[in-house]
Amino acid sequence: MALLMPPTARDIRVNQPLPRPVFDVYGHCLAGAGEMVETRRQADFLLRYGRVEYGGLDHTLGLDLEEFRDDPFEEIGHLGLMLQDLLRHACADPVGLPERLMPLVARLGSTVERDPESVLAAVHLHQALPLPAAHGLRTALLCDTVAAGMLLDRPWRRSLVCAALTANVGMFRLEDRLNRQQTTLTPEQKHNLRAHPYHSVELLRSAGVRDPRWLRAVEEHHERFDGSGYPRGLSGESICFPARLMAVADSYEAMVGNRAYRRAHSIHDAQRELYARAGTAYDPHCVAAFIKHVGIWPPGAVVRLSSREIAVVVARGEPTTHPVVAPIVDAAGHRIYRVEYIDTGDQGAPRIKGAVPSDDFRADLDPAPLWGYRSVPGWRR
Q: Domain tally for the chain?
């Protein structure tokens, strides 16, 4: 497919037919050439999240890239609510799920494309999202950020994102209970847990999903590289690549996220666990790619500097061991409200000495200003 660019106002006008097709960032068609734009809401959606084939210099000059510079933290919150409603509705009436999911996937892809640093920050700062949609959405955000860094083809990325969003739809109600449950699993819960990939695929097929990559990734996302996974005990490259990458992202998100029965693992503990199980539970190439593109010190990590300040990582560095940070507590322990950035790779700059639990600061931390966006009322848990 040709290079995709955001559309201009000349491309999309209310009560006018589209002069050319509009795609999402993955190349999936949102609206065909000649299709009538019937409402201002439809036009705004296509302008915000749509892409058209590059039309040369005149196209570039007609772009206003700041017009729809949505706050990604606010946007991810909206996506969580959308996904929660979609999954709940799918359990009662799955027919039409692929069509209902299409706007969410387009918005997610656009958010990852525009600001992957903020996307990773939302994951690692545990932005409040409705359960049980939170795990699937964060896993999808991680998968797409890594897949984009690996330069995977756009259709493969879309299938991967759709699979991550819907992998647990077959256990939606059970997952909600498990997220809040503080006791061990019952035998019935263990059986349902191990069977949920089959249940999810069955529901997705009944909903009208025909993408074989999507369906296969959902069925195999709990398989393990050494054959110890479920439901079929597949191993190595007999597990499809999207499922192997999903397995890494799914496990990582589960480790760094809070659960009712435990606090989140530290980022480095989670990374060490991935490395320790590379070649057994996980594809070692997927583990290496995941950590490379998420970062040793990913955005959203809270760190202690050699200057004794506490800072939040705002951007992955090159190399990722030397990211860009924004101090939030000074050496005397006083909160800093003025946003300043430090590139820890610069000569003479403070170095990172270690991690600090993000839960200790999340309660009064509004991330939007740290990434150059307005404050977001009510984002906190």
A: 3
CA 24/CA 250 separation, integer angstroms: 24
pLDDT in tens, 164-201: 999 999 888 777 676 666 777 788 878 777 889 999 99
Q: Hey, what amino acid is at 214?
A: W
- Cβ contacts of 206 within 8 Å, gap of 6 or more: 94, 95
241 and 344 part of one domain:
no
Q: What is the dihedral of CA 99, 103, 106, 107, to 10 degrees?
A: -160
Other Cβ atoms less than 10 A from the Cβ of 95: the count is 11
Q: Which residues contact 332 (CB under 8 A, 6 or more apart)?
A: none
Q: Which domain does 35 fall in, by range? A: 4-61
Spatial CA neighbour of 216 closest among 189, 248, 238:
238
User: Cα–Cα distance between 283 and 317 in angstroms, integer?
Assistant: 25
Please name which of 320, 327, 315 lies closest in space to residue 361, comparing C-alpha atoms: 327
Q: How does DSSP classify residue 97?
A: H
Q: Which residues contact 309 (CB under 8 A, 6 or more apart)?
A: 327, 329, 330, 331, 336, 350
Q: Are residues 204 and 97 in the same domain?
A: yes
Peptide bond connecting 319 to the previous residue in cis, omega within 30 degrees of 0? yes
Q: How far apart are CA 266 and CA 255, in angstroms?
A: 8
**Region of poorest pLDDT, from 144-158, 182-196, 274-288, 317-331:** 182-196
pTM: 0.90
- Sequence-distant (≥ 6) Cβ neighbours of residue 191 within 8 angstroms: none
Whether residue 35 lies inside any domain: the answer is yes
Helices assigned H by DSSP within the chain = 40-49, 57-61, 72-92, 97-114, 116-124, 133-149, 154-166, 172-180, 187-207, 212-220, 241-256, 267-276, 284-294, 359-362
Residue 379 domain-assigned?
A: no
20, 41, 61 - which closes a domain: 61
168: nearest Cα among 218, 220, 117 = 218
